């Protein structure tokens, strides 16, 4: 196979940490797109450009148009990365922008679906193995890693390994694997020793650095390791439970604060509004007086405990009363999100404060902003939304929410039937978001009491009972569920099982409606994390200069 010219820039989809370091060491410009904010790849210092965006064809095409990469590397991405890459290839986007796929190829991706595998029931009780294979430009193939399902009765024998290795090499040739890597699954009958292929995946997990080396033109003989080696891993089950969100009384707004206190001065890292499990920064419904009360309450908590270092506080604001729900003298799980949203390395700053540094010292060093903090965002600042372990950033809340939801659970629906069941206390606040859904073309299904209220205000609604709605949800006919009564458990369980958006508060529903409206209007844009942070710093510097000129 002829050697490909080495690329000068590469777009990495997913959190390929080791591969990204290989590309950087080789002098390539690295752009990362990955919505997971908790990985090292999401650190703005890791890549030249970092996009915390949902991985889908439309978004990735926008990023390709902005960054103009020579190559695309997805060997460590998820299913969304595979689907997106195939869509970009088939639509001609990769060809139009001159982007070469490295680390795998489209034929190998398509072979994942086409490769015949044995039915799972036929290999029950058999030993399971996965081989990660790599191939260089000269066609040389090696097994980089073997993962074996833990079995106390015994592990892989030399003969069984050699059989799997030979078959695996033939599979890579059959699917036309180019320079890069793949993973092939096997099952071995412990009695007869019969070996069957159970799956093919054009991605790797443990050998991504080696795959990156080969993808940019290195030969197997010139990189380490260049020999087969083993990693034995125990298979763990992944259990998921039915989500039950925290419920606050009345019109309460939940607020989460990450702060630093050095014994005399308080630094608000970020003040987040929590909307049904989703964190928003800056908060969208809190005014200046609310933020001032939160700042003073956080200062009082820090002073009263005599602490020094990071502080995480959870508040509830209801009917004008600010209540402390929980406080912890440590960094919260929201710190990675706050750091990226504000452009301030809050964890590093917290460690320095714990070691004795003062807030003023860190401002002088440039680790913290010279003036202001995460509790005072400049007007027009971008909005960041955290949904699970992913986040979205955009100029408006609706677009940021839609991005985060798409990355966490898939895109929000833009048409179809929605089921609504509201408690009596929500009859006033639910009217505007429901009308917005109707204006957007959605069809409303509702319980009897909710349907009566909607009809009285001129909103068409079809009365439906739980058994029929469950069937419609399971059949994919209902695209969104709202139940603030918490009585339609069967419907909510069906929605969760089918991956259909399900909300238990009007605030959560209203947020989703804003996201749907943003999608309908095509308002979402893409911006790298580095650009977002640079803009924040520029605005802060201008604000500081203006403040200084007035004093």
Structure, briefly:
With 551 residues, the chain is α/β, with parallel strands linked by helices.
Identify low-pLDDT runs.
224-243
- CATH topology term of the largest domain: D-amino Acid Aminotransferase, Chain A, domain 1
What level of helicity do the residues show?
25-40%
Q: So what's the overall shape?
A: globular
Radius of gyration: 27 Å
**Which CATH architecture of the largest domain?**
2-Layer Sandwich
* Total strands: 21
Work out the helix count. Answer: 18
The chain-level mean pLDDT equals 85
Q: End-to-end distance, in Å?
A: 69 Å
Count of all domains: 4
Please indicate the percent range of residues in DSSP E strands (runs of 2 or more). 15-25%
CATH class term of the largest domain: Alpha Beta
Explain the layout of strands and helices.
Layout: E1 9-13, H1 17-25, E2 29-33, E3 49-51, H2 57-67, E4 71-73, H3 79-90, H4 93-97, E5 100-102, H5 106-114, E6 127-135, E7 141-148, H6 158-174, E8 180-188, E9 195-201, H7 208-215, E10 253-261, E11 266-275, E12 278-281, H8 288-305, E13 309-318, E14 321-328, H9 335-342, H10 346-354, H11 359-365, E15 383-387, E16 390-394, H12 397-409, E17 417-421, H13 431-439, E18 443-446, H14 448-456, E19 462-463, H15 466-474, E20 478-483, H16 489-498, E21 502-503, H17 506-521, H18 529-550
Parallel strand pairs: 1-2, 1-4, 2-3, 4-5, 17-18, 17-20, 18-19, 20-21
Antiparallel strand pairs: 6-7, 6-8, 8-9, 10-11, 10-13, 11-12, 12-15, 13-14, 15-16
Helix pairs in contact: 1-7, 12-17, 13-17, 15-16
Structure characterization notes:
Belongs to the CarB family. Keywords: Amino-acid biosynthesis, Arginine biosynthesis, ATP-binding, Ligase, Metal-binding, Nucleotide-binding, Pyrimidine biosynthesis. InterPro entries: ATP-grasp, CPAse_ATP-bd, CPSase_preATP-grasp, MGS-like_dom, MGS-like_dom_sf, PreATP-grasp_dom_sf. It catalyses: hydrogencarbonate + NH4(+) + 2 ATP = carbamoyl phosphate + 2 ADP + phosphate + 2 H(+). This is Carbamoyl-phosphate synthase large subunit. With 551 residues, the chain is an alpha/beta fold. It folds into 4 domains: 9-102, Rossmann fold (3-Layer(aba) Sandwich); 127-204, D-amino Acid Aminotransferase, Chain A, domain 1 (2-Layer Sandwich); 253-376, ATP-grasp fold, B domain (D-amino Acid Aminotransferase, Chain A, domain 1, 2-Layer Sandwich), CATH 3.30.470.20; 408-521, Methylglyoxal synthase-like domain (Rossmann fold), CATH 3.40.50.1380. Helix content is 36%, strand content 22%. The chain is built from 18 helices and 21 strands. The protein has helices at 17-25, 57-67, 79-90, 93-97, 106-114, 158-174, 208-215, 288-305, 335-342, 346-354, 359-365, 397-409, 431-439, 448-456, 466-474, 489-498, 506-521, 529-550; strands spanning 9-13, 29-33, 49-51, 71-73, 100-102, 127-135, 141-148, 180-188, 195-201, 253-261, 266-275, 278-281, 309-318, 321-328, 383-387, 390-394, 417-421, 443-446, 462-463, 478-483, 502-503. A 7-stranded antiparallel beta sheet has the order 14-13-10-11-12-15-16, with helices on both faces. The longest helix has 22 residues, at 529-550. 45% of the residues are buried.
């Amino acid at each position: 196979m002829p050697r490909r010219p080495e690329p000068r820039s590469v777009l990495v989809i997913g959190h390929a940490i080791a591969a990204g370091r290989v590309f950087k060491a080789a002098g390539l410009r690295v752009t990362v797109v990955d919505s997971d904010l908790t990985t090292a790849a999401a650190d703005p210092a890791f890549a030249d450009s970092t996009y915390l965006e949902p991985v889908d064809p439309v978004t990735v095409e926008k990023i390709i148009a902005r960054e103009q990469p020579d190559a695309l590397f997805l060997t460590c991405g998820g299913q969304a990365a595979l689907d997106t890459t195939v869509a970009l290839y088939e639509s001609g986007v990769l060809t139009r922008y001159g982007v070469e796929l490295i680390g795998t190829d489209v034929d190998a991706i398509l072979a994942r679906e086409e490769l015949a595998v044995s039915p799972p029931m036929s290999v029950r009780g058999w030993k399971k193995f996965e081989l990660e294979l790599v191939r260089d430009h000269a066609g040389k193939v090696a097994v980089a890693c073997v993962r074996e399902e833990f079995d106390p009765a015994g592990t892989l024998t030399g003969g069984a390994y050699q059989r799997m290795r030979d078959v695996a090499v033939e599979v890579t040739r059959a699917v036309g694997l180019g320079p890069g890597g793949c993973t092939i699954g096997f099952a071995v009958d412990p009695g007869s020793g019969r070996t069957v292929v159970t799956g093919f995946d054009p991605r790797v997990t443990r050998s991504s650095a080696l795959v990156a080396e080969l993808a940019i033109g290195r030969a197997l003989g010139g990189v380490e390791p260049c020999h087969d080696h083993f990693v034995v891993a125990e298979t763990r089950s992944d259990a998921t439970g039915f989500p039950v969100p925290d419920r606050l009384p009345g019109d309460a707004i939940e607020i989460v604060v990450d702060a630093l206190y050095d014994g005399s001065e308080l630094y608000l890292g970020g003040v987040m509004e929590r909307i049904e499990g989703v964190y928003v920064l800056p908060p969208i419904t809190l005014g200046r007086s609310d933020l001032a009360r939160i700042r003073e309450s956080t200062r009082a908590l820090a002073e009263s405990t005599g602490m020094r270092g990071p502080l995480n506080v959870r508040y509830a604001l209801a009917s004008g009363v600010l209540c402390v729900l929980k406080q912890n003298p440590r960094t919260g799980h929201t710190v990675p999100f706050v750091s990226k949203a504000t452009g301030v390395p809050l964890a590093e700053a917290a460690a320095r404060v714990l070691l004795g540094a003062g807030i003023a010292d860190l401002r002088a060093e440039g680790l913290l902003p010279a003036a202001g903090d995460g509790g005072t965002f400049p007007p027009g600042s971008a909005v960041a939304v955290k949904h699970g372990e992913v986040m979205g950033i955009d100029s408006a809340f609706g677009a940021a929410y839609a991005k985060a939801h798409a990355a966490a659970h898939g895109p929000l629906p833009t048409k179809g039937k929605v089921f609504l069941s509201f408690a009596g206390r929500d009859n006033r606040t639910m009217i505007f978001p429901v009308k917005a859904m109707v204006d957007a073309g959605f069809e409303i299904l509702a319980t009897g009491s909710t349907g009566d209220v909607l009809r009285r205000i001129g909103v068409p609604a079809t009365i439906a009972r739980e058994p029929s709605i469950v069937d419609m949800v399971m059949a994919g006919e209902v695209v969104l569920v709202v139940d603030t009564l918490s009585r339609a458990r069967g419907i909510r369980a069906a929605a969760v099982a089918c991956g259909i958006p399900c909300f238990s508060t009007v605030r959560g529903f209203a947020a989703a409606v804003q996201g749907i409206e943003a999608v309908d209007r095509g308002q979402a844009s893409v911006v790298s994390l580095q650009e977002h942070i640079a803009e924040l710093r520029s605005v802060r510097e201008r604000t500081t200069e203006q403040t200084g000129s007035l004093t």
